[in-house]
Design goal:
The chain is mainly β. It is 4% helix and 45% strand. The protein has 7 helices and 102 strands. The strands form 24 sheets. It has a 16-stranded mixed sheet that branches. Strands 59, 61, 62, 65, 66 and 67 form a 6-stranded mixed sheet that branches. Strand 52 and strand 53 form a beta hairpin. The longest helix is centred in the C-terminal third of the chain and has 17 residues. The radius of gyration is 37 Å and the shape is globular.
């Protein structure tokens, strides 16, 4: 019996090593790693890792003798972590005894079980959560629960689908085109096999959601555009368009490329229902003959090939780099640098190249021209790149590569006797809002941590010194934000930390890493749901604020409401809403054709309403989408989403749309232009740009010299179109650039020019983009543009190349290249944690032979030891025939290059002889010994700096700020307006890099936030918040006519609306009231007049006159006015003279107002370029220069005469144009506001003068209209004539319908003195801050008034004996429909050759000049 007791005691010691032991030995392997599974279905063994913690329970003692031998990971004074690897056969179990012997005889023991299991599929049951359903977001997908499949098991192998693990035995299945294009007719069960091992194969059968059955799907009008001369890796190798008359909303068309293979889903772009055009770019996968097959889905849901084509993609080979010549500079104790010189590839075609160290974990940094180009041209370039390094770095090699061609640069390195590994001590992951986590890492290294890095699903994540928020790089805290859905944590790579020795430590992120926090892992956070979540089963009561919504030519703000059974499981969840229709997905640059990401979507988070026990989420419905239903989804975790197409019909959001426009503007005509066309040394292209439904909003185009890399950028908008060539729906644009950029008349060289970039955006944000190369300058692949139409798809690439030969240019090539003669910097030390991180570079370049090419702007590069760079694009200060002085100022990025500092180089000097030059750091140092390097060893941690914020709406609520230095903040200052400043104390939800502000008030206006650290006083930057505006005032639209070349019949396109003030109830005026029952009717809002009666009391009558003469100097017009006879004198014939009335209406100026309403800038509007479109339409253009700003403001006014009654729509409002009306259509580009809280004021003047010498009266009246148009009016009256002006309280600004304020300025501006014969008034239209574009539509009509002005008239001025003797009065009605932002409406006046009236007009003009 005693022996048995002793045996049991021994076994206890073996299993619980802490009993009577100096050492505790603990298995700290995570729970989900205790049982292992084969890594793939073909493996017959399990790789098993066990992590062991050894703790000394008495006194510190080295722990280095664990048995069996294990790998050391981390230790401190009394603990150490080891991991042990063992490979075990499938289905086996094994026990291993671990022991640790101390310096004496005391020993610790631990027995650990090693288990290798396989999934037993015979025990698995399957629950169908979501049937196989199509959505444009996920294509065909389903969700299943595989009961009995442990979450820790390895993902099975599966053909024909992608399997994403959700958790709690849930799986998302994404069916591949290779599977569903081969399904059998009427196959309503979709089967896939999950291969866990070669013996354990599970068949998963999911029923098909049958919504697409019985479709009519006829494809016609197939067009293919083969741009086969496009080089391989050019983004657009061709385009395929088809038309479909499908009777269902979502017919499926997919294109197969047999290379690899790849499938591309065609996207709808335009048309009407049952006649929709679909588009796809035929992507060049490889440089040879590539076949494409178009699959269409049949009525029985099977697929068939209906079209085949091929394109031969031509790859242009380049010569390799030459070996590098290395220059080494270690003259500074703070930093060393190497400069490698080598020959560039030939020819260079503007693609980016990469620079990286030859390390296992270095992903490299990508650059494009002009970085690194030091001499020559693109046929024969010289490269020179300086690489800064720490003096103690152990890196021994760098490599530059281009198209797979690399040039290695071997460098000297420091020999290290012992390896000072950096290490991570703790990690904390906190879900702060939505799907966003803040990750806090404590790390240390005696030589300083340089960065940490990992990757998730192929997305590279580097945590550098910009994330350092406390301490220093030797012992500090790093914080960064991580999206737990868009990235999450699956497929996580090694987590690596590297120090300034360039020595790294790599961690398996799924296992413990530190003795301090052995229960933590470095797996980045993701949203995890409990097993009670089944939203397809629980969701209910889905409704919308508006349904059956008309979205023709308008975007509509809407609200989704929903709730769940078992609501306690849901109300604390973050639920992300997103629209998933083709338009919304395209706007998010979303696609799944090549990369298989399903979560790169912008989410709006639902808000829980406790009082109504439901969720709600606001969203904006896009305009001109496919009619039917608008697809949406609710996302709960990375792969767990509810898609609306899987829900019943009563839960669908239904839309009505007469137009479908999901494509941006395209180019429909290209004409090359040479110097012979211009008569000068200019060249370019004439482009016809069309967008027949939405119309062009803006865009840009970039031209590059193929030989010298010269760059010419141009903006595009309707205001830059050729005068008279059309409108925003179709117009011609002349892109012209100078071939001779010299001041010394050197001439121009022979070379080709190419259009390298074109971006066109329509008025609802649809974008078409052309890029010469598939890779951007940062090296990223532009996969998102596979379904984004190429605006040049109608043309071969040759049309984008303009060849300049010796008949146009014959200047000699100048191979010397520009020289750098001076280079200065404003500071040599920067605190990269301060608010003042600005630095200025001033430099001079010289070319004595051909001179420097004008309009080219060299770039200053700041480079760190991590090969990160920041750029500063220069501007020209002054220039001569041979020299140009440049300057540039920039803010160094937060935390940039701490603590080593950065080196400086400058590239991009181009001469007129076809050669460029650039200057690496070694050249900068030789020219200016104090301007090549900036120290950044200062990094303040306690200065609050706001860098970004979450989105907030005009409804108010919570707002999260991102930045740094927030941990010291104790006060928040919110400025809603000068009279509404709120101060809040910070008590909770505060981190170093994130901070929550609660209870933001409801406001439509921008407001500012400033954070304050009161002791010692430190204030953050003032950060501007622009709320997203939601206004739920949808009503069914009033039908409008189709767009034509006439500005009047064009639909007003406004994607969002804001609340527009409505006029209050008013008293009905007039005697009799409203002119009597035959002229008007009295309502609660005032008089409603019957045609042709008009005015506030219906006492004026519309009158028709002959069209006025066109004014060729400005947007002004002489409107013939019915005149009367009168006056006390007589003519030479004894007849009474004609009474002359002069009406002058003009835009006087623009004024920028600060937030107090004080004018800080005044810009006169007095110079125009005129063009006649036809006999009734004229166009006027002006370009404004704003003092102290580089930007130009373009103003275009199109003036149109109406000879009959018409109806237009402006800013979502239907407006009637009366006969004899002159209308102005005005477009204005962006204004460079001094501050975002400022506004722009348009000052207009209206004046009425009479030549009548009799005793008469004049009056002035300003108020609200009563006819339902919710406008202001002004009425100026002299005797029996009046000027009547109407000013709408709405405007279109940045494609939003917003409210504007109209104010009288008579008390603040220098008006002429009003008399009995003269009335004048100044009206200001206050325009809120805008960024891109404004548009207005004022109009002017004629009236006949009933009653002359009298002493009883409001604000009247009368002679002593004035009487009422006149009959009908001629007047001018000025309807300033729209917000009349920056518009130029110039003088409406009649010109009479009598001396007295010339004098009157002259006096008025002089007065206006004093105000301008």
């Amino acid at each position: 019996m005693k022996k048995i007791i002793n045996l049991l005691f021994f076994l206890i010691i073996l299993n619980f090593g802490f009993v009577y032991s100096k050492f505790d030995i603990i298995d700290i392997t995570p729970e989900n790693k205790q049982i292992s599974y084969p890594q793939s279905y073909s493996n017959t063994q399990c790789p098993i890792y066990k992590y062991i913690l050894v703790k000394n329970t008495t006194q510190p003692e080295p722990i280095n003798n664990i048995n069996p031998a294990s790998f050391f990971l981390d230790s401190n004074s009394d603990s150490a972590i080891y991991y042990h690897y063992y490979s075990l056969d499938l289905g086996k179990e094994k026990q291993i005894n671990f022991t640790v012997n101390g310096m004496d005889t005391e020993t610790g023991y631990l027995t650990v079980n090693f288990i290798c299991k396989e999934v037993n599929v015979s025990l698995v049951t399957i629950d169908i959560i979501q049937k196989v359903t199509w959505s444009d977001h996920l294509k065909y997908s389903s969700i299943v629960r595989l009961n009995g499949i442990p979450d820790e098991s390895t993902n099975p192998n599966v053909d024909g689908a992608t399997l994403n693990r959700i958790g709690n035995s849930l799986f998302q299945i994404l069916y591949k085109e290779a599977y569903y294009t081969k399904i059998l007719p009427n196959q309503l069960q979709w089967d896939i096999n999950l291969e866990f091992t070669s013996k354990q194969i599970l068949k998963v059968s999911v029923p098909l959601n049958q919504s697409n059955i019985e479709q009519i799907n006829n494809v016609f009008g197939i067009e293919v555009y083969k741009q086969n001369k496009f080089q391989y890796n050019g983004l657009f190798g061709g385009s395929l368009l088809i038309k479909s008359n499908s009777s269902i909303q979502r017919p499926i068309y997919t294109v197969l490329s047999l290379v690899d293979p790849y499938y591309y889903t065609m996207a709808p772009i335009s048309g009407v229902f049952e006649n929709i055009t679909y588009y796809v770019n035929l992507f060049p996968i490889a440089p040879f003959n590539q076949s494409f097959s178009l699959y269409s889905q049949n009525e029985d849901l099977s697929f068939k090939v209906i079209y085949e084509t091929f394109i031969e993609f031509i790859s242009k080979t380049v010569s390799p780099y030459s070996p590098a010549i290395l220059r080494y500079d270690n003259s500074s104790s703070s930093i060393v640098f190497y400069t490698g010189y080598f020959d560039g590839v030939s020819p260079y075609n503007f693609r980016s190249f990469s620079c990286k160290s030859k390390g296992l974990f270095d992903y490299g940094i990508n650059y494009g021209f002009p970085f690194g180009f030091v001499s020559g041209n693109n046929e024969n370039s010289g490269m020179g790149i300086s690489i800064p390094m720490s003096p103690i770095s152990t890196k021994d090699k760098f490599q530059f590569s281009y198209d797979g061609i690399g040039v290695p640069i071997d460098v000297f390195y420091t020999l290290v006797d012992s390896k000072p590994y950096p290490y991570i001590t703790t990690i904390e992951k906190i879900n702060i809002y939505g799907f966003t986590y803040i990750v806090i890492i404590d790390a240390s290294d005696s030589f300083g941590v340089k960065y940490m890095q990992t990757s998730v699903n192929g997305v590279y994540i580097r945590i550098g010194t910009e994330s350092l928020v406390n301490g220093d790089n030797k012992n500090g805290v790093w914080e960064f934000l991580h999206d737990g859905v868009k990235l999450g944590s699956d497929y996580v790579n090694t987590f690596m930390i590297e120090n300034n020795y360039d020595i790294f430590q790599a961690y398996d992120p799924t296992y413990p890493f530190s003795t301090t926090t052995f229960n933590q892992t470095l797996v980045l956070p993701e949203i995890k749901l409990n097993d009670k979540i089944n939203f397809y089963n629980d969701i209910k009561d889905i409704t919308f604020k508006f349904n059956n919504v008309h979205v023709t030519n308008q975007s509509v703000d809407n609200i989704l409401y929903f709730t769940f059974d078992n609501i306690e499981n849901y109300k604390d969840l973050s639920i992300g809403f997103s629209l998933n229709d083709p338009k919304s997905l395209k706007d998010m640059n979303y696609q799944r054709d090549i990369i298989n990401f399903v979560n790169l979507i912008d989410y709006t988070f639902a808000q829980w309403d406790e009082s109504n026990s439901r969720f709600s989420v606001m969203f904006k419905m896009p305009a001109n989408v496919i009619p039917g239903v608008l697809d949406w989804s609710l996302t709960f975790s990375k792969y767990y989403s509810l898609i609306s197409t899987a829900l019943p019909d009563e839960y669908q959001l239904k839309v009505v749309s007469e137009n479908i426009d999901i494509i941006g503007p395209i180019v429909t005509k290209i004409i090359k232009k040479t110097p012979s066309d211009f008569g000068t040394l200019n060249a370019g292209w004439l482009l016809t740009i069309e967008d027949e439904i939405n119309g062009l909003l803006n865009g840009y185009i970039t031209i590059k010299g193929v030989l010298d890399s010269s760059v010419y950028n141009f903006t595009i908008s309707p205001s830059t179109a050729i005068i008279g060539s059309g409108d925003k729906w179709k117009a011609d644009y002349l892109i012209s650039f100078p071939l001779d950029g010299s001041l010394n008349n050197y001439g121009c060289i022979i070379q080709d020019y190419t259009i390298s970039d074109l971006k066109l955006v329509d008025s609802f944000g649809n974008t078409n983009i052309y890029y010469h190369n598939i890779k951007s300058n940062d090296g990223t692949l532009r996969y998102s543009f596979i379904q984004q139409p190429n605006p040049f798809y109608l043309f071969d690439v040759d049309e984008l190349i303009l060849s300049i030969d010796n008949t146009m240019c014959n200047a000699a090539f100048d191979s010397t290249g520009p020289k750098l003669t001076s280079f200065q910097i404003s500071k040599t030390t920067i605190d990269v944690g301060s608010q003042d991180r600005s630095i200025t570079f001033d430099f001079i370049a010289q070319d004595l032979d051909s001179g420097l090419k004008d309009g080219q702007f060299p770039i200053v590069y700041l480079t760190t030891q991590n090969l990160d760079s920041a750029q500063c694009i220069s501007s020209i200060v002054s220039k001569t025939d041979t020299d140009i002085t440049y300057t540039c100022t920039m803010d160094v990025p937060l935390g940039f290059s701490y603590p080593l500092g950065f080196t400086i180089s400058v590239y991009g000097f181009i001469n007129n002889g076809g050669y460029y030059s650039g200057f690496p750091t070694d050249v900068i140092k030789s020219i200016s010994p104090n301007a090549w390097y900036v120290s950044t060893d200062q990094y303040s941690m306690d200065i609050p700096i706001i860098t970004s914020s979450t989105v907030i709406t005009n409804q108010g609520g919570d707002l999260w700020l991102s930045g740094r230095g927030f941990n010291f903040v104790d006060e928040i200052k919110i400025t809603y307006s000068p009279s509404n400043i709120v101060t809040k104390q910070v008590t909770s939800n505060k981190y170093n890099s994130a901070l929550l502000i609660s209870d933001i008030i409801s406001t439509n206006d921008p407001f500012t936030i400033q954070l304050i650290n009161s002791s010692p006083l430190k204030q953050s930057n003032v950060f501007i918040i622009n709320p997203v505006l939601y206004f739920f005032n949808y009503t069914d639209p009033i039908p409008t006519t189709s767009p034509t070349t006439s500005p009047t019949t064009s639909p007003t396109l406004t994607p969002t609306k804001s609340p527009i003030p409505t006029n209050p109830p008013q008293k009905c005026n007039g005697n009799p009231e409203c002119g009597g029952e035959d002229k008007g009717a009295c309502t609660s809002k005032g008089c409603i007049c019957f045609t042709p009666w008009f005015g506030p009391d219906c006492s004026s009558k519309l009158v028709e006159v002959t069209p006025p003469l066109i004014n060729g100097t400005g947007p002004s017009v002489e409107i013939p006015t019915p005149g009367g006879e009168g006056g006390s004198s007589t003519t030479s014939g004894g007849l009474p003279p004609k009474i002359i009335y002069k009406t002058l209406v003009s835009v006087v100026s623009l004024r920028e107002l600060d937030f107090n309403g004080k004018a800080i800038k005044t810009i006169p509007l007095d110079s125009w370029e005129f063009s006649e479109i036809n006999s009734t339409i004229s166009r006027y253009d002006t370009t404004l220069t704003i003092e102290g700003k580089d930007e130009k403001v373009n103003v275009t006014t199109v003036m149109q005469w109406f000879d009959k009654s018409s109806t237009i729509v402006f800013a979502g409002q239907q407006l009637k144009m009366n006969p004899s009306t002159i209308k102005f259509n005005i477009d204005i580009t962006s204004y460079p506001f001094s501050q975002a809280l400022n506004q722009l004021q348009l000052v207009m003047s209206a004046t009425l003068i009479s030549s009548n010498n009799d005793d008469i009266c004049s009056s002035k009246l300003f108020g609200n209209t009563t006819n339902g148009d919710d406008s202001n009016f002004i009425k100026l009256q002299v005797d029996d004539h009046s000027v009547y002006g109407r000013f709408l309280k709405r405007a279109i600004v940045d494609d939003l319908i917003i409210s504007v304020e109209n104010v009288l300025l008579d008390n603040s501006l220098n008006t002429i003195e009003s008399t009995t014969h003269t009335q004048q008034s100044f009206i200001g239209i206050n325009i809120p801050y805008f960024k891109r574009h404004v548009s207005i539509d004022p109009d002017f009509s004629l009236l006949i008034d009933q009653n002359p002005a009298s002493k009883s008239s409001e604000n009247s001025i009368c002679s002593s004996d004035s009487g009422l003797s006149k009959g009908q009065i001629a007047g001018i009605v000025i309807g300033a429909t729209g917000f009349a932002a920056v518009v130029v409406i110039s003088a409406l006046y009649s010109i009479h050759k009598t001396r007295s009236n010339k004098k009157m007009i002259s006096n008025i003009s002089k007065k206006l000049e004093t105000i301008k």
